[in-house]
Structures are given as C-alpha cells and as structure tokens.
Write a structure and sequence with these properties.
The complex is a heterodimer. By secondary structure, chain A is an all-alpha fold. Chain A has 2 domains: 59 residues; 220 residues, MetI-like (MetI-like fold). In chain A, helix 2 crosses helix 15 and helix 5 crosses helix 12. Chain A starts with a helix and ends with a helix. Chain B folds into 2 domains: 51 residues; 232 residues, Orthogonal Bundle (MetI-like fold), CATH 1.10.3720. Helices cover 72% and strands 1% of the residues of chain B. Chain B has a two-stranded antiparallel ribbon with strand order 1-2. The chains are: A mainly alpha, B mainly alpha. At the A-B interface, helix 1, helix 2, helix 5, helix 6 and helix 7 of A face helix 1, helix 4, helix 5, helix 6 and helix 8 of B.
C-alpha cells in the first residue's frame, strides 16, 4: 500500500535471507528509487489530465476571438491577449456583480461566524432543558435541502417586501450561522477543558466573557474553517440569488455571469469572454484556498469525519 | 437542627436559581438559531406541505384541493422523467465518485517526494465554483470546437455530448468526477488514521496487497465511506446549478433533473403549489435514503470507537 508498508514487507522478507547487510541495504535503496520513479511515471500524466481543464479555462480566456473557435484547437494562446477581459467588463456590469458578491459574502460570513459561535456556546457549555432535543434538530436540518424550502421562503420574503434586496441572502446567516458551523464549533468547544470556565465563573465572569475571552481565542482554527467555508459557500451560491434578485445591477457574479452569453445556448461567439468571467469567479476561491490551505484541508477532513 | 434545614433550604433555593439562570442563559445563546429554525426551516417545511394541498398560482386565494397536486404528479410524465434522470445521475455519479476518490486517496498517500504537488493537482479542480465549472465544461463538451472532441478525434470517438440525449447525462457524470478531490482529501485523512500495526499484523498473516486493502483498509475506512455515500446521494440528488446553466433540460428532457423541474414549475410556470408538492416528495426521498443508509450501515460499517 504505502511505501512504508511496502518497505517493512520487503524488510521482513529479506531478514530471513542470508544476504550480507550492505548488499541488502543497497538492493533496498535501488528498489526504493525504482519505486519512486515508477510512481512519478504514472502520477505525472494523471496530474496533467486532472489540471488540464483548469489550464484550458485560463488559456481560452487569453486567446483572440478568432483563435478560440478553431478545430483542432490552439493548444497555447498565440498571441496572448486580454481582449476577452476587456470585452467582459465593457459589455457587462461585471465589476458591479463582483463587488455585490464580495459584499454579500462578507456580510453573510460575518453573521455566520458570530451567530454560530454564540449558538455553539449554548449547546456546548450551558445546561438547559431540551438541549439534546434542540441539538438533534440542528443536525436534522443538515439533511433538509435548500430546494425543499425555497418556495415558502420566497413567499415569506415577498410578504416582508425583501424581494430584489440582499436581505434574504445575508440575514439568514445571522440566525444560527448554519447547522454545520454550529456542529463544528460545538465539537471544538467541547475539547477545551471545562475547568477553565469554572475558574472564570468563580471569579464572577459571565457566559459572554467566558466565551469571548476564554474560548474564542482557543478556537481560532475552527473559526477560520467556518469563515472560509461560509465565504466560499456564499460566493458560489446560485439558487437563492436566482430566485430573490431580479435587477441586473444587484446580481451577484455567480448569477450575473449568465448574461455574458445573453441568449446564445452554448454561445461559441462569446466563449472567450465567458472563460474570462469564469476565471475571475474561480480566482478568489483558489486564492483563499492557497492562503488558508492549512485550515481548508482540516475543514474538509472534519467535514468528512463528522459523520462518525 | 433547624439551622441545618434552613441552610439546606437556602442551598436548594440557590441551586434552583442557578438552574433557572443556566436555562435562561442557554436559551439566550441558542436564540438566533431558534428564530432561524422556526422561520427559515420548520416554518417553510410545514408551509410547503400546506401549500401542496391547495391550488395557488401566486395570485388569488388558495383553494383547498386535498391530494390533487399529488394525483397530478402521478400522471405527469415530466415528473417521472426528472426522477429517472436524477436517480440515474445520482447512482452512477456517487458510485464512481467513491471509487475514484478512494483510488486517488491511495495514490496520493504514497510516501514519495513531491507527493504534495499531486495532492494539490487532484484537489484543486474541486474548489472551482459550480458556475465556473458549468461554463468550462460546456466549452470542453462543445461538439465543434471542444477540447474533448479534439482529444478523441484521433480515435474516431467524437460525440455530440450535451446535445445528444444518449450522452448528455454521462457528460454530467464525467464532469462531476472532475471534482473528486474533496472526497479524496477526506479518504486521505482516513487512510492516515489507520494504525500501521494493522498492516504489520496482516503481513505476518501473509496477506497480499489486495487482501490488506480488502480486509484492513476498507473496514477501517468504512465510516468515512459511509458518510461520503450519504452526503453524496443527498447532494447529487439536488443537482441544479450545472443543469440549469448547461442544458436546462435539453435535449428531449434528458437532463431535466428533479430540482430543475421543481424550480421551473414554481418560478417559471408559477405553479407554486405543484412546486411545493414536488418539494415534499424530494424531502421524503431524502429522508428515506438517509434512514435506509443508517439502517443498513450497522451491517457493514465498522466503528473503531464503538461505545454505548
């Protein structure tokens, strides 16, 4: 399986043979090198195949219009051009959409972080009647998809006069911050020794003080995970803004980008601009990923293992 | 004597006071979630159910029609078509996803220098926003100028992909495999959590590579596999963004996915009550699958830290 296991396997076999120690270790080194080489021989092509669509996204966005629609395709953009990006911004309020998305994502993330911390503290540290019941409902809501609730939610938001505003996109984040975030932060808070709270309580500290001064500083990695995932989730959010927002200038970029194609179904004429837009949508996510890689990976791992 | 009772009484009172205080505090902390739960989760869920028993097309007064919406569903060809399309997509995509993620995780778990680069290469595509992914793959699948046909041309395998009812769903499934990196990272963490001792013991028993994989790796990973299976089915069943942007049900309704049909019924045809009935059926399907999987999990999922 892994090299280490393979090596230990090889080692157990060799220890029973009567070869001299030096030739054994030399043979082992050769085997090891062959193994590494072989691994790269098949991993490299796989990695190229996996990342090629991303290369295709960026390279198409940098081709002249006439070079986009060629078959067989131009494998490398020659000459390089930013014409597609210029067209993207000239013919669409792309910077407006982009800014809208940033505002919505930041607003919602702020709310989700603050409110999930508060709620998680309630579930992790306060003793109250019905705690387990409510918490099981938090977990249950993770199973209910947005699409099941979107129609009544739309009717509710309409009754409140919030259609075509960002309120339905931002406000819900302040009401609990998402079941998964609550769950994650609660699990983390439970790993922090309760004795610390007790000591602070004896000193007369309130729940709020304990939470912000004692727990939150110890929760930074988990808070980072929540923030990163919520921000990206909001950036990618599609169905909610599609339903709630009508005015072109108010759209977040994920929904607004549709208009780049404006009517054409697969729209080869505007493919370059479309790839430019898609590159710009993807860019912040990749940047966040690169910057918060440590937290990101931990978050995915926790997401996956949370089912245990 | 009386002094001690008085003291016990005072202590009892203060305990009651503390209990009350901790209850109030607990409910205060979880109150944001409670508000969100009643207004944005439970309310809409019940609201959708109520809506599904009336006839309401956005204007006029709702009229009670009992099960008419559900009866209509049983006679609705598109309902069954969308259910079939979604089930087809879900089972193939989730099954292939698990296998691919597991293989990828095993591959990037090798202890070889530069393995991190491969991890990033396989993981990176999964962070691409679904909107960007949809437009990128629309371009890759383009029958005239697309990358895929350019690659397949020497083999005489050119297809019309998204334009052909025979291949359209397969194109979606193949696209979803590109985002296998998220599950891969989860499996990778699971692999790294398996103690080496188990492999060593298997070695001593003379187990080969396959047997070690089959009898050590798979059972130890089964909770993670199970979790990914549940979440994969739930999320794949809700495929919407890609379907809406790439083909919007075409050709011949072969990519009319369930949530797409729900959206169309409610927000394009303004059949709100029919949409609500569709939403409840979706909810029941998801509850059913979640329940089924948890019932079956006892048979094959191995929990290391089982304590009850």
């Amino acid at each position: 399986m892994t090299t280490q296991q393979l090596e230990s396997f090889v080692a157990t076999e060799q220890s029973s043979s009567s070869l001299s120690a030096s030739s054994t270790s030399r043979r082992r080194a050769i085997r090891r090198r062959a193994y590494v080489l072989l691994t790269h021989v098949y991993m490299l092509p796989l990695a190229v195949v996996a990342t090629f669509p991303l290369y295709w996204l960026v390279s198409t966005s940098l081709k002249f219009r006439g070079n986009v629609l060629r078959f067989p395709p131009q494998w490398f953009p020659n000459p390089l051009t930013i014409e597609n990006y210029q067209r993207l911004f000239l013919t669409n309020p792309f910077e407006r959409w982009y800014l809208n998305s940033v505002i919505i994502a930041v607003g919602a993330t702020l709310g989700a972080v603050v409110s999930a911390i508060l709620v998680a503290y309630g579930f992790a540290r306060c003793r109250f009647v019905g705690r387990e019941f409510w918490f099981s409902l938090v977990l249950a809501t993770m199973m209910v998809p947005e699409s099941v609730l979107i129609i009544p939610r739309f009717i509710l938001m309409r009754a409140l006069g919030w259609i075509d505003t960002w309120i339905p996109l931002i406000l819900p984040a302040y009401l609990g911050g998402g079941a998964f975030n609550i769950f994650l932060l609660r699990q983390f808070m439970r790993t922090i020794p309760y004795e610390l709270d007790e000591a602070a309580k004896i000193d007369g500290a309130s729940g709020f003080v304990i939470l912000w001064q004692l727990l939150v500083p110890n929760l930074k990695p988990a808070v980072a995970v929540v923030a990163v995932f919520t921000a990206i989730g909001n950036w990618n959010s599609f169905m909610a803004p599609l339903v709630y927002i009508n005015t072109t200038e108010k759209l977040p970029v994920a929904v607004g980008i549709r208009m780049v194609l404006a009517g054409t179904q697969v729209g080869p004429q505007n493919t370059g601009a479309m790839m430019a837009g898609s590159t710009l949508i993807t860019l912040p996510v990749v940047l966040i990923f690169a910057a918060a890689q440590k937290y990101f990976m931990r978050g995915i791992v926790m997401t996956g293992l949370s089912g245990r | 004597m009386s002094q001690t009772t008085a003291m016990a009484g005072a202590r009892g009172l203060s305990r009651l006071g503390r209990l009350l205080r901790s209850n109030v505090e607990g409910y205060l902390f979880i109150s944001p979630w409670l508000v969100g739960f009643f207004f944005l989760e439970l309310g809409p869920l019940v609201g959708a159910l109520a809506l599904s028993f009336v006839d309401w097309r956005f204007v006029g007064t709702p009229r009670f029609v009992a099960f008419a919406n559900y009866r209509h569903m049983l006679a609705d060809e598109l309902f069954f078509k969308s259910l079939y399309n979604t089930a087809y997509y879900t089972f193939l995509a989730v099954g292939l996803h698990l296998v691919a993620a597991l293989i990828a995780a095993v591959l990037v778990n090798q202890k070889v220098s530069g393995i991190n680069l491969y991890r990033v290469a396989f993981y990176l595509p999964s962070v691409v926003p679904s909107v960007g992914m949809a437009y990128l793959w629309m371009w890759i699948y383009n029958p005239e100028f697309g990358l895929l046909n350019a690659v397949l041309r020497p083999f005489g395998l050119r297809q019309r992909w998204l334009y052909d009812a025979q291949t359209a769903k397969l194109a979606y499934i193949f696209m979803s495999l590109w985002g296998v990196g998220g599950a891969m990272v989860v499996f990778l963490a699971g692999l790294q959590g398996i103690p080496d001792v188990l492999y060593e013991a298997a070695n001593i028993d003379g187990a080969g590579l396959w047997h070690r994989f089959r009898h050590v790796t798979i059972p130890m990973l089964s909770p993670v596999i199970f979790f990914n299976l549940v979440m994969g089915i739930i999320s794949s069943f809700q495929i919407f963004t890609a379907g809406y942007l790439m083909t919007n049900g075409r050709p011949e309704n072969s990519t009319l996915f369930y949530v797409l049909y729900l959206y169309r019924s409610a927000f394009e045809d303004l059949e709100f009550s029919y949409g609500a009935a569709l939403a409840w059926v979706l909810f029941l399907i998801i509850v059913f699958f979640t329940f089924l999987q948890f019932r079956l999990s006892g048979r094959w999922v191995y929990y290391e830290d089982e304590r009850v």
